[in-house]
Amino acid sequence: MKVRKGTLGILLLSEAVVLAMGALALSQGTSYHRNSAAMGAAILALPFLLERAGWFRMPMFMQAWTSLAVGLHTFGLVWGLYDSAWWWDELTHAVSSSMVGMITALALYLFDMHSVKIKVPRWAFPMMVLVFSIFIGVVWEIAEFAGDVLAGTRMQYSVVDTLSDCYVDMMGGLAASLAWVLWLWKDPKGNMASSAQRPLIDLFHRAF
């Protein structure tokens, strides 16, 4: 399937930035930062690969927001901003959790639209978006704790830092919920409704 120019442009720009940060981390010998950049590059490639395969066309604003979230995290790791700027951690968590919330809203929207047997009430979307954003935030904190214990990554600084991250994740999820209520559900240009392509729609019909 032909890939939109916007998708290709976002992919090339974001991958160039993240891979450059990964190369810098490699030259500095920081394996955790290098691995994070590699993982970020893989995540950024997913929208392109799914669109190329003809399964899913992520709305452009969500692609851009995902690139921003991955880019901020990678940039902060490589340049030590998590240590030197107290607000960087809060910024990245806010952007990432709102990104998770928007993607959750899109998934619920497509599930409700294309599922044959199960319907998701639209009034429940904000609550489900908020809860899932908080859940992913908690999973991330657990992963950071595991990394600190098993690999000495030193991602968690204190209990206050962990709880602060959880509160910011909640605020990001709340922002995504408000975005759903005020804008996303209207889908004025049809970007959300047209994101699922025929193979994915057929999968919805068979499975749900």
Instruction: Report on the biggest sheet.
Output: none
**What does the radius of gyration come to?**
18 Å
Secondary-structure-based class equals mainly alpha
Unreliable parts: none
Note the run of SSEs as H and E: HHHHHHHH
Oligomeric nature of the chains: single chain
Shape estimate: globular
Instruction: Count helical runs.
Output: 8
The averaged pLDDT comes out at 92
Strand content: under 5%
Distance between the termini: 25 Å
- Strands, total number: 0
**Number of domain modules:** 2
The helix content is over 70%
Describe the structure.
This protein has two domains: 1-60; 85-207, no CATH class. The longest helix has 29 residues, at 86-114. It has helices spanning 5-28, 31-52, 60-78, 81-84, 86-114, 125-151, 159-182, 198-207. It is an all-alpha fold and 208 residues long. The mean pLDDT is 92. The chain is built from eight helices and no strands. The two termini are 25 Å apart.
Question: What's a concise summary of this model?
Answer:
The protein is an all-alpha fold and 208 residues long.
